[in-house]
Design goal:
The complex is a heterodimer of chains A (135) and B (76). Chain A is α+β, with helices and mostly antiparallel strands and 135 residues long. Chain A is built from three helices and six strands.
Chain lengths: 135, 76
């Protein structure tokens, strides 16, 4: 399911590592809003990938100190709705295998959590650089 | 009200350490107000995740080719 340039609805394959899913999604309580939102999207992501049109580039230097060059994101719930109605996000890392270009889920969480809780961007920074932004 | 007797276990840990409690691993992280907090551990890097998927990261040129046109909202 690689990119198909010029197609009306270009989609990219998404791969979900079970350990990453456990660490990112299952850290939330069962039936909590973020976990429910993520679980609702998983089958669609794995079976149909994600539309390029729904992706955004992560910030090279975010206002929160994160540095996420080379990563992309999609807000959750995945929809055409305004960002204010989609409080969660997946951060995805593009990669190429012998067969295709794909996106690996590397972080999930709240975009703007309450103070003291890591945002999805800080978690992605940790996975990319091995430490949190303020460490 | 009588005070509860609590046995305090002192931990010799620092930011960035990983501790295991009850079989679960936690990162020792800053609580952003001068102390520390425990969060469920992140145990693999992006590079390791790619390797597990038998993929390689894109070069900056490849990233620009495929994703350079995407919008960015500067949020993170």
């Amino acid at each position: 399911m690689g990119t198909s340039r010029g197609a009306a609805a270009r989609r990219l394959a998404v791969r979900v590592n079970s350990r990453v899913w456990r660490e990112e999604v299952e850290r939330f309580e069962l039936r909590s809003p973020p976990r429910t939102a993520a679980e609702r999207e998983r089958r669609g992501l794995e079976d149909h990938g994600v539309s390029l049109a729904g992706l955004m580039r992560c910030a090279v230097e975010g206002s929160d100190g994160t540095r996420l060059a080379g990563l992309v994101k999609v807000y959750v719930p995945i929809s055409q709705g305004p960002p204010s109605e989609r409080p969660f996000g997946f951060v995805l890392a593009p990669a190429r295998s012998e067969q295709e270009l794909f996106l690996a889920v590397v972080a999930f969480g709240e975009r703007h959590p309450r103070p003291g809780v890591r945002s999805v961007y800080e978690r992605a920074h940790r996975r990319l650089h091995g430490r949190y932004p303020n460490q | 009200m009588a005070e509860m007797a609590v046995a305090v276990k002192k931990l010799d840990v620092a930011l960035g350490d990983v501790v295991e409690i009850g079989g679960r691993r936690y990162d020792v992280v800053s609580d952003k107000v001068g102390g520390v907090a425990l969060e469920p551990a992140i145990t693999s890097t992006v590079a390791e995740i790619h390797a597990e998927h038998r993929g390689r990261p894109l070069s900056s040129e490849e990233f620009s080719e495929h994703f350079g046109h995407l919008p960015s909202d500067g949020e993170g």
